[in-house]
């Protein structure tokens, strides 16, 4: 849904872009992925053979960064669903929902309410059937010979 990653299988490195933001609350304005599709994308990335993940913001790490991001998103979904089940409005949920385990993350107070509202709208909207796209997304594919040695990496 607009995010791109770069995977270097021989080096076992993943450049995850803004799908992985350790220690940062996501910027809620202008974001393209839905939270549900973001979680699904992280599950796909978790299947890759990766030792190093370079996030869009924050410290480089390993697969623990994927879990940390997934855990944050799951906590956000859980709390927003609770607020919705209690009949809370989006505006009130934005004021009330707190994720204390993430209270030290950058922009927690500023951007968490916007993420709550965004997710509230997403969860309130009727589900839309997603069309099947190629595994690499929007028609993109891996160039032929990507796993082959070349003059540069054979040295």
Which features does this protein show?
155 residues, mainly alpha, three-stranded mixed beta sheet, 4 helices, 37% helix, 8% strand, elongated
Task: Write the H/E string, N to C.
Answer: EEHEHHH
Please work out how many helical segments DSSP would assign. Answer: 4
- Per the principal axes of the C-alpha atoms, what is the gross shape? elongated
Mean pLDDT: 85
Strand arrangement, major sheet:
1-2-3
Number of strands: 3
CA(first)-CA(last) distance:
37 Å
How much helical structure, as a percent, in the residues?
Answer: 25-40%
Main sheet summary: 3 strands, mixed
Which strand-content bin applies to the residues?
5-15%
Task: Report the structural category.
Answer: mainly alpha
Low-confidence runs = 131-146
Spell out the blueprint of helices and strands.
Elements: E1 6-8, E2 13-17, H1 35-46, E3 52-55, H2 64-85, H3 90-96, H4 108-124
Parallel strand pairs: 2-3
Antiparallel strand pairs: 1-2
Helix pairs in contact: 1-2, 2-4, 3-4
Q: How would you describe this protein?
A:
The chain is mainly alpha-helical. It is 37% helix and 8% strand. The chain has 4 helices and 3 strands, in the order E-E-H-E-H-H-H. It has helices at residues 35-46, 64-85, 90-96, 108-124, and strands at residues 6-8, 13-17, 52-55. The protein has a 3-stranded mixed beta sheet with strand order 1-2-3, with no helix packed on it. The protein is elongated and about 50 Å long. The termini are far apart.
In brief, what are we looking at here?
With 155 residues, the chain is mainly α.
């Amino acid at each position: 849904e607009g995010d791109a990653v770069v995977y270097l299988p021989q080096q076992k490195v993943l450049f995850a872009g803004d799908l992985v933001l350790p220690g940062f609350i996501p910027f809620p304005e202008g974001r393209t992925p839905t939270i549900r599709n973001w979680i699904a994308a992280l599950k796909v990335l978790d299947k890759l053979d990766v030792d190093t993940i370079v996030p869009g913001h924050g410290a480089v790490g390993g697969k623990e960064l994927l879990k940390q991001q997934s855990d944050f998103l799951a906590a956000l979904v859980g709390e927003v669903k609770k607020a919705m089940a209690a009949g809370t409005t989006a505006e009130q949920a934005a004021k009330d929902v707190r994720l204390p385990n993430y209270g030290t993350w950058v922009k927690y107070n500023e951007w968490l309410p916007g993420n709550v509202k965004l997710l509230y709208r997403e969860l309130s909207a009727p589900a839309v059937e997603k069309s099947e796209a190629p595994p690499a997304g929007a028609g993109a594919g891996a160039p032929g010979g990507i796993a082959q040695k070349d003059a540069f990496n054979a040295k």
